[in-house]
Amino acid sequence: MDWRDVIQRVDDNRWELPTLYKPGMRVPARIYASWPLLEMAASDRALDQAANVAFLPGIVWRSLAMPDIHWGYGFPIGGVAATRVEDGVVSPGGVGFDINCGTRIILTSLTEAEVRPHLERLLDQLFRDVPAGLGGHGDLKVSDAELDDVLSRGAAWAVERGYGVPDDLEVTESNGTMPGANPAQVGHRARARGSRQLGTLGAGNHFLEVQVLEQVLDRAAATAFGFGEPGQVVFFLHTGSRGLGHQVCQDFLEEMEGAQKRYGIDLPDRQLACAPIRSPEGERYLGAMAAACNFAWTNRQVITGLTREAVARVFGEPWETLGMDVVYDVAHNSAKLERHEHEGQELDLCVHRKGATRAFAAGHPELPERYRQVGQPVFVPGDMGRYSYVAVGLPGAMRETWGSACHGAGRTESRHQALRMLRGVDLVKRLGEQGILVRARNRRLLAEEASEAYKDVSNVVDVLAAAEIAAKVVRTRPMGVIKG
Amino acid sequence: MYALMVDLDRVEPREARALAVSAPDLERLLVHWLVDLLFVTETEGLVFAAFEVEVDEAAGSLRALAHGEPFDPERHDAGYDVKAVTYHDLEVVREASGWRARVILDV
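^ Those are the sequences you sent over. The predicted structure of the assembly is below.
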């Protein structure tokens, strides 16, 4: 059945595939997108994947897709689904390989004019101190016992080890510690892969960027988040749980496939393999996943410490006097047990967000006190040649998306296609001409991350705003980029 | 898989690693083996370019010797960081001219 024949328009930014689209869908699939974004999503089978998610036992209300939706394994990237804890399932495909991948912004009191003359040296320092790319491992090697501590306690471990201050934890989602972590469920392979990867960036779309505040779009929220005037320099970090998280996902894929068969769950895609939340397999996965979440938060906290030290060295001042406070740290690949109000009832749900972030509105008790009157900072990175947005969660997100928003621009071209399109283009030079300095381990694959490979993130955040999921707060543009 | 990570022509067979895996079918056998290789690469820093593989389909076992050397970012022209081996559209088929396999890697 062609999606165009059945798609229902809720309004200009909300579309639904009804359950008749694929027999077996338990709920409709709702896509937040403008028509052009919807057509893009359809071109790479991501709409079909949103419909497949609607088959999951225990799914409530809708299989949701954010405006940056694109093809992923099992769930689309940009997919959100809540399942009832009582009788629903958890699916590793709804979290992804890079468990608890996320973004973090660190402020500075420096301006572009102050940083520009030192940018080369700053990037060189960061490139040395924050290992990136294939085979990149850090100076920090943890023993198995220490790793247990990391897996149980998350970012708090890194703060104790001197990679941050307690205030950083205040402004980290779940305070940087995922409850319910069970390190015993993290296998020896995942541990071995992770033992030397704390404080490393990884490759692909992960980055550490030096960015400049370009536009303030909501002064009150911007001030609450710590942003000053245009020209202010900030650091934007995007990375996750590295090999440890990948291996946890890998280890559970096959186990879940067996479990799914045993529990008699029929699904249209092998990569959606799942188990009841209240089953030994489901509980084991959730325990291991939570531990991997803690690894990811520890990783971002360690990188925060390394970044502050690098900046302090280059500018000859302690980071505290350079105003390097964390704005927020938000995750975008996880399954979290949350309570939400839905149609007048309080429901205990397992909210899968795959390439989607939380976007809690003002008043939510899980928000840090300083943001409770404003709402949660939502980071929507664009691409390294254009700009990124900071937004704020709105009540619409609590009503419709389990407090979720999108996590980026989303690709328009496959990575392969991007490489072909940009063959022969010296991207480092081109970005240099735009005033964007790049340090990349792998210049050959850099084209995959070029602006041409991504949607214009403006179009994506416009949908969030129109659908009252998140409102724009500031726009930033890159001046320095570190890539794997 | 290694062609995505490095320039295979520049990998010398200085070291070898023997791996043995078992699985109920050929598809899983392939995935298990690649997962094991990936583990060696990530934890020991070795990349491989030549393989001797023996498969006993009836017993569901694979034994292989992988030849390669420590990864050197200067010499090997680093490419993708392979995160995981997926089961998506996984296929191993026998054709007139030999075996053909399709495995999708997450990079």
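Chain A is about 35% helix and 25% strand. The radius of gyration of chain A is 21 Å.

Shout if you want it in another format.
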